[in-house]
Amino acid sequence: MDVLAAVEGSTAAIGYGLAAIGPGIGVGLVFSAYIQSTARQPESSRLTLPYVWIGFAVIEALALLGIAFGFIWAGNI
Amino acid sequence: MTGQTIVLAADVPFPPSVEDFYLPAIVGGHDSYWFTKITALLWISVAAIIIFFLVSYRKPKLVPTKKQWIAESIYGFVRNNIAVDMLGKRGINFAPYLTTLFVFILLMNFWAIVPVAQISPNSHIAFPAILAVISYVMFIYIGMRHHGGLKYFKHALIPPAPWFILPLLIPIEFFSTFLVRPFSLAVRLFANMFAGHMLLLVFTLGGFAMLNSNLWFAPFSLVSWAMTIALTFLEFLVVCLQAYVFTVLTASYLQGALADEH
To answer: Which of B24, B112, B128, B234 is the most exposed place for a label (fewest CB within 10 A)?
Structure first.
């Protein structure tokens, strides 16, 4: 049978796409919680801001590990 | 990557790869890599920070000059918004180190969007790794000095929990505090700068690839280069954010090492 379509390149791209779903949701949750808490209690916005960035950074690290490992274990099809 | 469908011009390799981060040597032969653009940017950053702070604090005045005002507001920002906010009164002792760290990372990251330079030394993991090791050693040392050698590890590893859950919690605490922290600190900064540079490369080189491919694709190279400009602004955001995040996380690790409760 003839080959009609073929995909070439690195499977790491697919893997990274999957790996970015979780951190994407997580980062969204962090900022939604911050916006909600600030809307309810505007005085607390300065108090909670460092924790927003810490939470953001910890979650974002997962997506960035995905990038780093994507290059380390890049597989070819 | 192999098998690109787009016909490429010989001189613009389209999918940028990790090789693009290993810049040619400036001084010396083809095989000597002791002085590259990365090294030059590092030396310039260090020299600029030292000279700027020395000059602006040479003759401090009660009514600050413009230079003194800039230096004081950078220091004031880190001291009040990071050190004192996170560590309380003790934060003032750590403010000089945190300010140095913040300014150094900010300037090193900033090279990613300066025309001509356009690569951050932090996109090589060696630099973030050393900074992370300094933070790691510092928070353990500070913790041991504050609580006393073994008591610090007891404090860090044994959370207040019922005894039957401790066999599960202690390995988790050990893993997250002593193994993951330095690793994630280094990889976060490195991967942000690496990904940022890669993104700019993809859109810049992608523009050339489309320009060279055929007549129908050529106009879209302008879109690609417009994206490069937009992404440069995004990079500016990331540059500032990552310098802030690294400093805040270092402060928060110190906070954990100095905490008195439980």
So the answer is: B24
